[in-house]
Amino acid sequence: MTPGTHGTADLVVRPARPDDVAAVHRLVCALAAYEREPDAVVAGPADLAAALFSPDPRVHCHVAEVMGGDGSPVVVGAAIWFVSFSTWRGRHGIWLEDLVVDEAHRGNGVGRRLLAGLAAECTRRGWSRLEWSVLDWNSSAHGFYRSVGACPQQEWTTWRLDGTPLEALGHDG
User: Fold this and answer.
1) Can you tell me the distance from the alpha carbon of 3 to that of 104, in angstroms, rounded to the nearest whole number?
2) Active-site hit among 12, 33, 145, 153
3) Is 34 noted as a catalytic residue in this protein?
4) How far lies 171's CA from each of 79, 161, 165, 168, in Å?
5) Largest separation between any pair of C-alpha atoms in the chain
């Protein structure tokens, strides 16, 4: 099948393996370009491999693969996530850092299947929520996430401390 024409019958969602790192890195770079930050990725494949496959990883990844034209599996999507915690619920959850699907495979259920895989992970472990951030201008993502029953948490604003201010505050500690 040509990219973008397959259904989800041949789609497999599974935890990433070390041999998926190059494909995951490619998807991360594609996401950065899509999010108008093509030069923002400083992590290389070795960084991702170290983070995902250390003896006690703090970040995890599920991939979506389809059969390529030559009959071998091709990674076409990835969900990179880590464990979160709700003090109010007293339960863990998943924070979805990045969900990315190759452009040629969007609109074919790949993103939905990746999210479903993470929802199943939460359910299996007894975790209470699956959360993520979406850029304000990404209306297609907003529509997609609403279609699976997610809703924006508009009363919360994400804050970030990094670079020089992070280092300066760290020196006070």
Assistant:
1) 6
2) 145
3) no
4) 34, 14, 10, 5
5) 57
Indicate the Cα dihedral angle 140, 143, 146, 151, nearest 10°.
70
Instruction: Return d(Cα 128, Cα 105) in angstroms, integer.
Output: 30
Q: What residues in the chain have per-residue pLDDT under 70?
A: 1-9
Structure confidence by residue, pLDDT tens digits, 135-164: 889 899 998 889 999 999 988 888 888 889
CA–CA distance, 123 with 130 (Å, rounded to integer): 10
Tell me the residue type at 97.
E
- Output the DSSP codes for 40-95: -----HHHHHHHHSSSS-S-EEEEEEEE-TTSSEEEEEEEEEEEEEETTTTEEEEE
The CATH-assigned architecture of domain 12-172 is: 3-Layer(aba) Sandwich (3.40)
Q: Which residue ranges make up each domain of the chain? A: 12-172
168 sits in the region (left: phi over 0; alpha: psi -120 to 50; else beta) called alpha
CA distance 97 to 133: 8
